[in-house]
Each structure stands twice: as structure tokens, then as C-alpha cells.
Amino acid sequence: MKRQNEDCCAPVMTGEDLSRYLGVPVATLYAWRNKRTGPNSGRDGRYLRYMRAEVDVWLGFHSCVALMSPAEMSHYLRYSVATLRNWRSRGEGPGYARVGKHIRYPREGADAFLTGNAA
Questions:
Q1: Domain ranges (residues) in the chain
Q2: 108: which residues sit within 8 A by CB, 6+ positions away?
Q3: How many CA atoms are closer than 13 Å to the CA of 21, on its beta-carbon side?
Q4: Where are the alpha helices (DSSP H) in the chain?
Q5: What are 48-95's pLDDT values in tens digits?
Q6: What whole-number distance in Å separates Cα of residue 80 and Cα of residue 39?
Q7: Whether pTM exceeds 0.70
């Protein structure tokens, strides 16, 4: 009988395995695939498969980026969380990413926003 955590350590992972491994819903994996922002995947018939090595490379790249919550970003920029929300709805302000149902801001985007706003 296979233990539950053996799936996430296999060289080839299913969408469900990767979902458990990353702690995100399978629907998020599909959204990342459509936007071409997630880890590389391939098809095995009608099923998606993810190579563990490529997932680890993708995670390594994304873990180097310091992400901040809206509260942390508002403290960093000295603007309110409501102002950040308004900017997002209008397509203005610093760049952000939606991770599952959460909003995250990369620190580099905040620095670029401050530099561009100061000019």
C-alpha cells in the first residue's frame, strides 16, 4: 500500500499530487497553466503530468522573490490597504500576483513603483 506522501516525491506527479505538494487547489494549477505562469506540465493522454525536477526549479525561482501581503505592502508604502485595493481595481499601483485566493506583492515591484512615483 502506498503512503500518502509518496505521491509528492515521485519523479512524475499528477495534478492532484502537485496540488497537495504545493497546498493549492487543482483549479489554481489549471489557471496557472492557462496563464502560463505555473510549473511546466505535459499531457499523458487526457491527464496533466508535472515533472518533479521542473516543479522544484519553478519553486526555487519563485521562492527567491519576496512576497508581501496587502497589509505588509501598505506598511511598506505608507498607503492604506483600501488604497491598494482601489489601485488594483483600476489597474494602477504596484504589480501584484494572485496566489490562490490571496493577493501578494513582490518587493521589487514596490521598489519600482516608489521609484517611478518619485519622478
A1: 4-63, 67-118
A2: 65, 66
A3: 21
A4: 15-22, 26-35, 52-63, 70-77, 81-90, 107-118
A5: 899 888 887 777 665 556 678 899 899 889 999 999 999 999 999 898
A6: 33
A7: no
